[in-house]
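Dear Dr. L.,

I hope this message finds you well. Following up on our conversation about the binding site, I have prepared a predicted three-dimensional model of the protein together with DQA. For your records, I am including the exact sequence and ligand specification that went into the calculation, followed by the structure tokens. Please feel free to forward this to your student if that is useful.
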Amino acid sequence: MTSLKKFLIINGPNLNMLGAREPEIYGSLSLQEIIKYTENNLAGKCECVWYQSNIEGEIVTRIQELTKQDYSGLVINPGAYSHTSVAILDALHMLKIPVIEVHLSNTHRREEFRQTKLTAKASTIIMEGLGKNAYLMAIQSQLL
Ligand code: DQA
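The resulting structure of the complex is given below.
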């Protein structure tokens, strides 16, 4: 029996506040509810490990650990760090696995400062505007 592909899903700052945070932009589901929704739709197809932090350095450390671990891909929503973090960009550059950057909202329809995505320079794929389906579709793209 072949083992299932394993994915790490990293969520950056303020994504622990989904549901309560600007629901007109990000929807009414909490992160826990989105995780459950994603896991239910992927049941038996892969293994998902979820990590959330509001702290840039913690995210960098988790990405560094990935270089020594056996994962098939990283899905990352860096939140606002996407627009600012050279440290996360540098960490992502070390990875040899596909990196799928996701944003729940379509940032191209939003403020000018959200148009710059430093972290996307190290991403294999970038997906935006899919709301609660963002993580599900990012992982599914690696299962085809
Ligand atoms: C976000 C978009 C970012 O601009 C914002 O700072 C977030 C969430 C998204 O998922 O749409 O925190 O990454």
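In brief: Residues 14, 77, 79-80, 82, 103-105, 107, 114 surround DQA (CB under 6 Å).

With kind regards,
A. P.
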